[in-house]
Structures are given as C-alpha cells and as structure tokens.
Amino acid sequence: MTYTPRILAFAGSDRSQSVNWKLICLVSEAARQAGAEVTVIDLRDTPFPLYGQELETREGLPEAVVQFKKLLCAHDGLLIASPEHNSSISAMLKNAIDWATRRTPGEPPLACFAGKVAAIMSASPGNLGGLRGLVHVRSILSAINVLVIPEQISISKAEEAFADNGTLKEAGQQQKVEQIASKLVSTVCKLHG
Q1: CA 20 to 30 Å from 64, out of 53, 98, 115, 160?
Q2: Does residue 140 belong to any structural domain of this protein?
Q3: Measured between alpha carbons, how far is 19 from 25 in angstroms, rounded to an integer?
Q4: What CATH number does residue 186 fall under?
Q5: 3-class SS of residue 15
Q6: Residue 12 is part of which domain span?
Q7: Which residues fall within 8 angstroms of residue 124, CB to CB, at 6 or more apart?
Q8: In sequence order, what are the residues at sequence separation of 6 or more whose Cβ sits closer than 8 angstroms to the Cβ of residue 53?
C-alpha cells in the first residue's frame, strides 16, 4: 500500500480577495499533483476569539479551536500562505497558532504541531512580496517543533502576478511554487511514509 501524505493548507488573511488565498489554492493544487491529499481551509470560517489566558481558564478552548486542532492532528504537513503585516505575521494567523498550541487535559505539549513539516509562502502588493513576515512565521513554527522546509516563495506585486486561470504569469515563479509543493510532499513522505 502506497503512503499518501495528508497536507492542511490555509492562508493567514481575512481579505475576501486575498492574493495569499490565491497563492494557497495554487500551491495546494501543485501538492495534489505531487501525490498529496490536500485539505484547504479558510480561517475566516472558524473565527477564534483573541487568545488570552484568562479567557482560556474561564471558558476553555472554543469549539472552533478544538476542530482546528483536530484538523492539524489529522494531517502530516502544512502549507501556509502568510500576508505581511507591519513586517511580521498577520494577527489572524498568529492567533490561530496561539490557540492551537494550548493543551487539553492529557494531551502532550504541542500535539498538533510536533513532527509536522511545513512550507511557507507569501504574496504582497509590495516589492518584497511579504518576505519579512516569513522570517517570523518560520521562527514561530520552528519554536513549536514544526520542520519548515528551506524553500519558500514571496510573490511581489501580487495583484498583477496571477493569470485569470489562477496560475502565476511568470513561468519561473510558477515553477518555484510547484517545486516547493513537491519538496513538501517528498519530505513528508520521507519522515512519515
């Protein structure tokens, strides 16, 4: 029986016409072509309250967080597209990660992140394509025991970068997206297959 890696994909953007959403859809399809089973979720569909320890102590984990954690645990790898907010990670993405690191009784620390493999990327109308934010995304994920592959992509001037069919107009960028997806799938297979 052949192992099929399970990848969870999401963008850390709350914009309905987000270029990071376009990017996550594109790379998810590339990961499917590379042999993975990919689940794409929209974080806007499961809004979490702003994380606070007193809120958690008083009310426990919100149901949306419990469901998000179940999805994380059920997958071997992560595809994350992160917009850059003030040279860092978006509040939406950071909040989702913060909630998901919280333990339920009897759960080992970082149960839904430890041992996962991630590929990170960004798209931005700016000249750096969200690159500065990816430094922080990589740092956060590495600190919670996620192996982040070295390859990443930042799409600059992203509002002009996508063709009508959802692919990237520049052939080199399209090829890099496909290479990143393939590298994520092959790395997950080597570690979990």
Answers
A1: 115
A2: yes
A3: 10
A4: 3.40.50.360
A5: coil
A6: 6-192
A7: 19, 83, 84, 130, 154, 155, 156, 158
A8: none
pLDDT tens across the length of the chain (193 residues): 489 999 999 999 988 789 999 999 999 999 999 999 999 999 999 889 999 999 999 999 999 999 999 999 999 999 999 999 999 999 999 999 999 999 988 999 999 999 999 999 999 998 989 999 999 999 999 999 999 999 999 999 999 999 999 999 999 999 999 999 999 999 999 998 6
| DSSP, res 77 | E
CB count within 10 Å of CB 114 equals 12
Is residue 185 included in any domain, yes or no? yes
101 in a structural domain: yes
Q: Rounded CA gap, 100 and 163, in Å?
A: 35
Let me know if residue 1 belongs to a domain: no
Question: How many structural domains is the chain composed of?
Answer: 1
For residue 101, the one-letter residue type is T
Where does residue 154 rank: exposed (0-12), middle (13-18), buried (19+ CB within 10 A)? buried
